[in-house]
Specification:
Layout (H helix, E strand, L loop, with lengths): L1 E6 L6 H17 L4 E4 L12 H4 L8 H13 L2 E10 L6 E8 L5 E6 L5 E3 L4 E3 L11 E6 L5 E6 L8 H9 L4 E3 L6 H19 L2 E4 L16 E4 L5 E5 L4 E6 L2 H10 L9
Helix pairs in contact: 1-3
Length: 271
């Protein structure tokens, strides 16, 4: 299955971001991708975190969700949109949600980001809990690929990457492809992005697809980028450092079976 990780440098202009996403998704489909994954905050990185509140949508309706359904249907893609702001239980919060669309344009899965990022090194300060309401349910879904193989995919977002227990739960559920749409800061990405992603692939003997925001945003925020595709042995198959683009690689289920047979570590767990 050819997989596309879409890298963007999103702004506070939702229309501009959707137009760019549409162009990149079309590029991925033209290259033969069966699955395309957008980065975290693909539709909006505003001047302030609270800008998300003005663009929130009710689950199942809204212009961003309509765009995603139309894109999946018109391009014939499995499309993972990570993430957009969906209405939460509190009026001053939104969920940071990943939605999955099949090639018929139907939403088949939803994941609300569980772990909310907080960071303060004296120069940069972030606290997602000021605007986001955390989710509480790990989510996976099945994707029957064109060659007949049924993939099981586990959903996660950005800061989730630091919590290995989430991915262990996915491994126990039979997940063989982990998705990590992200908007890592330049500081934390430079230090930890690739090593954490490769670790999640290695310890769970799973493929990993991690599309990212990559560049300087109008708000002054700088994201690390390096959208990346990794095999179950921790080998990097493709990546892009910065700027908008499409990162492509073929994920072979035979490779997955071979690595898990050679090193059946998932069968050796005792805890």
């Amino acid at each position: 299955m050819k997989v596309a990780a879409i890298q963007m440098v999103s702004t506070g202009d939702v229309s501009h971001n959707l137009a760019q996403a549409g162009q990149l998704l079309a590029q991925a489909a033209q290259a033969g991708a069966e699955l395309a994954v957008l980065p975290e905050y693909f539709c909006l990185i505003g001047m302030h975190d609270s800008d998300k509140l003005a663009f929130q949508e009710a689950y199942g309706q809204g212009p961003v969700q309509q765009f995603l359904a139309d894109a999946a249907r018109s391009l014939g893609l499995w499309l993972v949109a990570g993430t957009l702001p969906l209405r939460a239980n509190q009026p001053d919060r939104v969920f940071n949600s990943t939605l999955v669309y099949n090639p018929q344009g139907l939403c088949v899965a939803r994941y609300d980001k569980i772990h909310l990022f907080r960071f303060d090194n004296g120069l940069e300060s972030y606290d997602e809990s000021r605007v986001l309401e955390r989710g509480d349910t790990p989510t996976w879904f099945d994707l029957p690929s064109r060659d007949g193989h049924r993939w099981r995919l586990g959903l996660s977002v950005c800061y989730d990457l630091r919590f290995a227990e989430l991915y262990r739960a996915y491994a126990a559920s039979g997940v063989d492809l982990i998705l990590v749409p992200s908007a890592f800061t330049h500081t934390t990405g430079q230090a930890h992005w690739e090593v954490l992603l490769r670790a999640r692939a290695i310890e769970n003997l799973a493929f990993v697809a991690a599309p990212a925001q990559g560049g300087a945003h109008p708000s002054g925020r700088r994201t690390w980028g390096q959208s990346i595709l990794i095999d179950p042995w921790g080998q990097v198959l493709a990546e892009q450092a910065q700027d908008a683009g499409v990162v492509l690689a073929d994920f072979n289920p035979a490779t997955l079976a071979q690595r898990r047979a050679q090193l059946p570590a998932l069968q050796h767990r005792v805890l």
